[in-house]
Design brief:
By secondary structure, the protein is an alpha/beta fold. Helix content is about 35%, strand content about 20%. Helix 11 (about 225-235) links the parallel strand 7 (about 215-220) and strand 8 (about 240).
């Protein structure tokens, strides 16, 4: 007889809570593993670890397990337990380089501290395993500063990063250059479709453009038939996972691939000698000539870049620093609020700027912050990158003088490395996302189609 599921009449809140306590207390989370193959040869080169509860438990399925953890505020504990189960199961089965192990991380608990003893397990894994941490775009848009720090930490640990579910949400394409993943996973909603709609074309072009400049690997999810194999290859994927190659199951005698999956480190964003904590002006001015101009000229350029950003639609982002909140007046606030309805991420920074319009992420600065002297507009998309980085001159008129009388040194650059570094520096100043009445929706001509009828994620 099967145990009652979490949502069934036989499973009360108390019984589910007690079962979750038991699973976490007794370390009963287990991992199953799904193969990832090279499409050209069908050879297994990696596995993705997928969490399950005990087989005889109402929390056996991932939906039930994670649903209970969210309901009772224990998601962080569960997420750590899943990571440990993934690496312990792999180590116990004799998993070792050059095979690659993919491990998921829940975006809501990215920075939760590891329970006692868990880091020791990860240290052992570090010595023997080549690990890729999978993230989703939800983490970056909700908590950009924390996620970008985590990505840096993962890389310092010697592991790699994958961005999951590309194509479900336009933000995943827009934010590729900020996360800089070594692996990009195309969602089954992209790989299973016979017709390449404008939405799918935009996703595929964005992914392929990123892979070309970074050397990242494109991996297709949800490949269940020979036709899906052909469709995945047609969208640029060289690797894939899905039921066509094997369902998730126990890991026994993992093979040693003849042609391993080689992950290329995304080159460090060029900083031109500036420190890792440098702001956009320092990043842009190293290696670029400064131009002196009145504020009216800088203003005109900034408005043009905002218009260019608007044309990027749901696959673009716009980050701007206004120095002080009084330089973010109502007309500009309304303008940025409209931009936020179309772009994936819009941020506004400035001294005292803590209450932006709906959809715009705030980045309040301290009065003594070096950025308080800078005027920045940064626009970034899959095939577009532009940065205006200006700093007010100290020998000019008073800072409360009319804009046309104030003088700035500025750099205008379209160097993607510099623009990406500046965008990252600004994104790390943004506050956590607050609930909004709406989420930005794709433009009407690029509406994301629903997933294929009856489809299931490759790791389900």
């Amino acid at each position: 007889m099967n145990p009652p599921s979490v949502g069934s009449p036989g499973a009360t809140d108390d019984s589910v809570r007690q079962e979750l306590d038991r699973v976490l207390r007794d370390c009963l989370v287990r991992s199953v593993y799904q193969p990832i193959v090279r499409l050209a040869t069908g050879e297994t080169v990696a596995y993705e670890a997928l969490a399950r509860g005990p087989e005889d438990s109402p929390l056996a399925t991932p939906d039930a397990l994670f649903g209970a953890a969210r309901r009772f505020g224990r998601l962080a504990e569960l997420d750590w337990a899943c990571r440990v189960a993934a690496v312990e199961g792999a180590l116990g089965a004799g998993f070792e380089r050059p095979l690659v192990l993919f491990v998921n991380v829940e975006p809501e608990v990215l920075t939760a501290e590891a329970p006692l003893g868990f880091l020791e397990v990860l240290d052992r894994a570090r010595e023997r395993l080549q690990v890729v941490i999978e993230l989703t775009e939800r983490a970056l848009t909700a908590r950009p500063a924390e996620l970008l720090r985590l990505v840096d930490e993962v890389r310092r640990y010697g592991w790699w990063v994958a961005l999951d579910d590309l194509g479900v949400d336009p933000r995943s394409v827009a934010l590729l250059d900020l996360v800089r993943p070594e692996v990009v996973k195309l969602d089954l909603a992209v790989t299973q479709q016979r017709i390449c709609s404008p939405w799918h074309a935009a996703v595929v072009c964005g992914a392929m453009a990123y892979a070309e400049r970074s050397g990242a690997v494109l991996l297709a999810e949800g490949v269940e038939t020979e036709e899906h194999v052909r469709l995945a290859q047609a969208r640029g994927a060289a690797f894939a996972q899905g039921w066509h190659f094997g369902r998730p199951g126990p890991l026994t005698a993992p093979p040693r691939p003849r042609a391993p999956l080689r992950l290329r480190r995304y080159r460090s964003v060029r900083r031109h000698g500036a420190s890792a904590q440098a702001g956009p002006f320092a990043l842009a001015s190293e290696g670029h000539a400064l131009v002196e101009a009145p504020g009216s000229v800088v203003y005109g350029i900034s408005r043009f870049l905002e218009q260019e950003a608007a044309s990027l639609g749901p696959f673009g982002l716009l980050l701007a620093n206004f120095q002080r909140t009084e330089r973010f007046p109502e007309a500009v606030r309304s303008h940025y609020g409209r931009l936020a309805r179309d772009l994936s991420l819009v941020g506004a920074l400035g001294v005292g700027l803590a209450d932006p319009p709906t959809g715009v992420r705030a980045g309040p600065l301290a009065a003594e912050d070096p950025l308080a002297r800078e005027w920045t507009v940064c626009a970034l998309g899959p095939q577009y990158a532009a940065l205006l980085a200006a700093r007010e001159r100290g020998d000019g008129p008073p800072k409360d003088a009319p804009l046309a009388q104030r003088t700035f040194d500025y750099v205008l650059t379209f160097d993607r490395d510099v623009v990406t570094a500046a965008a990252s520096a600004l994104a790390q100043r943004l506050l956590e996302e607050t609930p909004a009445p709406h989420d930005p929706e794709p433009a009407a001509s690029l509406t994301a189609p629903p997933r294929p009828s009856g489809s299931r994620p490759g790791g389900s």
